[in-house]
Write a structure and sequence with these properties.
With about 300 residues, this protein is of the alpha/beta class. The protein is built from twelve helices and twelve strands. The radius of gyration is 19 Å and the shape is globular.
């Protein structure tokens, strides 16, 4: 039986720190490191990391010093995926399992092309309300990973990952139809992430405004319509379920793109409405809400 004993994480955003911290706390300090280029390593060695107000000390490894690992967790933004693949190149051996917690529906395919589809376990991160400010991360809900194999993935890798997650106390649910789950989460992100950023709103402000709720739901519906043409069945109930989940989040919180606006940094708009607009053209699906959000967000970013 395959066994995962150690992991490298690439990306020190909210999710990278969340999962790296859980592995360090529950499996051991030697079981996890963060891999990065020399510049980032130098910067982060001087930083003080805090998780829910508690100081943390993580192992940082330069790309050139990285070693082969049993598991690699990719936790960067989509704009950093290409450089992340370079960072983890020495971490990936023939038996390494790779999992991506990136938003969107394409990172697994990109990683498969580079490292081999048999290494990839598909995942969707959901239900967490982690927010990062500088090197500090706070969360009230850890959420869970929905995981599964698809497109030639290896069931043995999935089982080994589940055993390791049990040790690390990382919550997960195995999905038999992981591609549907990924499209479902993509639908949510296209709606809530972009609405919060485009209108500078918190979760409660989106749900408390008829106008903003309409934008949120309209953007999700356009994803649902495209998914149907791709052979993936999403429903009105899936959309309503996301509203119920968001109601449990910190009402004053905002998702990653909302945080991008506050920090005046480039967002993942190309990953969300950019992808929807492209797929809308491919499938002949009207996407006016996403077109509006794309133009509005691009204008906001141009004024930073």
């Amino acid at each position: 039986m395959k066994e995962i004993k150690n992991a490298s994480v690439v990306g020190m955003g909210a999710l990278g720190l969340l999962y790296g911290n859980l592995i360090q706390e529950n499996v051991g300090r030697d079981a996890v490191d963060f891999v990065m280029d020399a510049g980032r390593a130098e910067k982060y060695r001087k930083a003080e990391f805090m998780i829910n107000g508690e100081r943390k000390d993580f192992r940082l490894t330069k790309t050139e010093d990285a070693e082969e690992r049993d598991l690699v967790i990719v936790a960067v933004k989509s704009t950093g995926l290409e450089s992340a693949m370079e960072s983890i190149s020495k971490c990936v051996g023939k038996d390494t399992v790779i999992i991506s917690v990136l938003n969107g529906i394409s990172s697994e395919e990109i990683l498969s092309e580079r490292f081999g589809k048999e290494k990839i376990v598909y995942s969707v991160a959901q239900g967490m309300d982690a927010m990062r400010s500088g090197q500090s991360v706070r969360y009230t809900k850890e959420g869970e990973l929905r995981i599964g194999v698809a497109n030639g993935g290896d069931e043995e890798n999935l089982k080994a990952l589940e055993i390791f997650f049990d040790k690390a106390k990382i919550h997960y649910t195995e999905e038999k139809d992981i591609l549907k789950r990924m499209w479902n989460k993509f639908m949510l992100n296209v709606g809530i992430n972009q609405t919060c950023m485009a209108f500078g709103a918190s979760y409660s402000e989106v749900l408390g405004s008829e106008k903003l709720t309409g934008v949120f739901m309209g953007a999700m519906k356009e994803v649902k319509d495209i998914a149907k043409k791709k052979g993936i069945s999403l429903s009105e109930k899936d959309m309503e379920d996301w509203i119920s989940i968001i109601k449990t989040f910190d009402p004053n919180g905002t998702p990653s793109m909302g945080q991008d606006r506050l920090a005046k940094r480039k967002s993942e708009v190309e990953l969300f409405s950019g992808t929807v607009i492209r797929l809308g053209k491919e499938t002949g699906t009207p996407v006016p809400t996403n077109q509006m959000l794309y133009e509005r967000i691009m204008k906001i970013e141009s004024e930073y």
